Amino acid sequence: MPDMVISGILPWCLTPETYAARPDYLQALADFVRARPEQPVAAFERQADAVITHDAQAQLARIRCRTLITVGARDVITSERFARRMHQAIAGSELQVYEGCAHAHFYERVEEFNQKTVAFLKQG
């Protein structure tokens, strides 16, 4: 399962530029995935099914706390259009789009993501 995650899922989460420019970082991510307890295939399938079938769009307007929504502009898994729909549905939410990043923008721009997230939390 770890090698399936590394070869089958990570390429959807990171941009080709990240793969080309940061091979050591990619190796560290692969090592991290391999070091984690292995998830049984049946559990992964249930998790994937839950992700695909869960739709909370109708509940978003009920959120009343400060909300930061982040997305990579090149995210092909949960694209920016979904983040914008969430942003429109959650009153007062903030949307941060990470240009040039994919689904795992928090891995592609760790320092920037952490800095902006901490700044958002400190505003509270």
Strand content: 5-15%
* Major sheet size, sense and barrel closure: 2 strands, parallel
Structural class: mainly alpha
- Helix % is 55-70%
Shape: globular
* Averaged pLDDT: 94
Q: What does the secondary structure layout of this molecule look like, with pairings?
A:
Blueprint: H1 2-13, H2 16-21, H3 23-35, H4 41-53, E1 68-72, H5 80-89, E2 94-98, H6 105-108, H7 110-123
Parallel strand pairs: 1-2
Helix pairs in contact: 1-3
Describe the structure.
There is one protein chain. Helix 1 (2-13) crosses helix 3. The chain has a two-stranded parallel sheet with strand order 1-2. The mean pLDDT is 94. It has two domains: 1-54, no CATH class; 56-124, no CATH class. The chain contains seven helices and two strands, in the order H-H-H-H-E-H-E-H-H. The termini are far apart. It is globular and about 40 Å long. The chain has helices at 2-13, 16-21, 23-35, 41-53, 80-89, 105-108, 110-123; strands spanning 68-72, 94-98. With 124 residues, the chain is mainly alpha-helical.
Features:
2 domains, two-stranded parallel sheet, 124 residues, mainly alpha
Short overview:
With 124 residues, this protein is mostly helical. It contains 7 helices and 2 strands; from the N terminus they run ααααβαβαα.
